[in-house]
Amino acid sequence: MEISSRRRDDDAIEIAIEGELDLSNAAELRGALFDAIEQNGAGVWIDFKRCSFIDSTGLRVIVEGARRVSGEYARLGISNLNEQPKRLFELTMMSRSELLRFA
User: Fold this and answer.
1) CA–CA separation, 35 vs 86, rounded Å?
2) ∠ CA(90), CA(59), CA(39), 5° rounding?
3) Which of 6, 26, 46, 76 fits as disulfide partner to 57, beta carbons 3.0 to 4.6 Å?
């Protein structure tokens, strides 16, 4: 898995995941995600365009991050879900969670 981050035009930080997100590399995402949340509060998105797989450990990191986002109406953003990651978010009902926003 590779992780990259950039500042978007709307000043949010976007973290892009490439490859598979699982137990072996979830800590890497946790570090990048928590750093981005600390830097930018509510303006953080995770881009799954090039992520082909996510397991429950990766999902847990995302939930932990979503709980850290600050602001009354703030949500961690999720974008460009591919088939398997999308199915996991749906099966776990996270696609309906008030902690996340989807684009």
Assistant:
1) 25
2) 120
3) 26
